[in-house]
Amino acid sequence: MKKNKILEEILKEVDKHPEIMSRREALKYLTMSPLAASVLAGASVGATTASASDAKGKIVIVGGGLAGMSTAARLNNTLSNADITVIEPDPLSVSYQPGQTLIGAGIWDKDDIAYKRDDFLPSGVKLIKGSVTAFDPDNNKVTVDGNQDVSYDQLIIATGLKLNYGAIKGLEGEITSMGTDNSVVRQKVGKNGTHSIYFRDGAADTYKGIQELIAKAKAHKGPGKLQALFTHPNTPIKCGGAPMKIMYLTNSRLEEAGVRDKVELTFYTNGSALFGIKEYNESIFKQFDERGFKKNFAHNLTEIDTDAKVAVFNHHWKEKGEWDEDLEEYGVVIKNERVEAKYDFIHITPPMKAPDVVKNSPVGSDKGWVPVVKETLQHVTYKNVWSLGDVAAVPMGKTGGSVRKQYKVLVDNMVASMEGKSSLPSRYGGYTVCPLITSIGTVMLAEFDWSKKPTPSFPLDPTQERWIWWLLKVYALKPMTIYGMLPGRA
Question: The domain containing residue 82 runs over which residues?
């Protein structure tokens, strides 16, 4: 894949929405910007990979999504005699999930993010079209579909996570973002004002729901305003900024239709802040105030009545308890109250969990995620087991931007281990990036790592909304991911 092919793919994306940016404007920026130059260079065939290694061993990768396939490709590029098997049941597992927000806002179509697993299987890599139903790390094997044992020398777990809608009373089912079997979830989600962008069909339904909200607002005569609610659960989630992104984009669509004054937008989060990094949190607070958004902290969605359009939250807080004479301090009492909120439109970010097959196995932790040394991505117990992506127990690591750093570290370290080296050479520093869409045409590019400080890649104030980051988010990142990262180069 040559650099001009990446540019061609970016310009194809630009051409889809000339009302936002023309091809000429995009070309002017792409030819002048160091940001664009780095994106194009990173996605080109000439990108640096590890030196060729003669290390031998049977490598099994559980999961053929972005993390699994990118890792397979980079290993294939790195090893002279690669023996790699990917286990993945979903024919559409290779998807561009960051695009689900854009589908929900009507900027992309749902087919824009769907890619076939088999089209991105690296040459020479074997594929088992099935699901791992058991892990047996003590005997270096996994079981596929309950009847096929597959042995390995090195195991990489990249299963992704599950969207656990059924954890909310009134909803049912747990699915993956691209899973086509979502009929149980869609019995309630995707209709009657209840929506979620976290799976592809749900994202397409969300845009229809926004259009229905606009139509309802145009007909609304009062009193009061229509209510649009947006939730953030009490579990780790992929793309922590997405619950706010769809709120910002709904705001833009309401403004565009001239009915923003008829709808109240409220963000309900289980946490105590809007964003975990102080500088970005302060900037988002200002954006919320400027746009007239309401916010409720320490509210976790626990129940919903989709017929009556009532959401139920657990509002929780801490109060000072009794004096402890031994510790010479006051105890802390957790208080809870049930809060009901009527809605005309609600966007649900579902609780998320590791797959049960991981949680209920020796390779999983009590919370389900795969416990790894966060800097090396090596399992804490089994030294020939590795993990990355959404299923790995890594702080702030459930984004595609995180995977882009993780898979290079994992490959370097696993190959070193296969070569018998006494130490692992690469370290993951917790880098992640959240291109926080703040309107149709602007993005705040929030980059950070485990220091919990902004770590901008470019000499611009990262707390500011900018149209150039829209260019990166909407036009450049997908080609870079699909044609750069999936081949194991970017």
Answer: 3-89+130-161+354-485
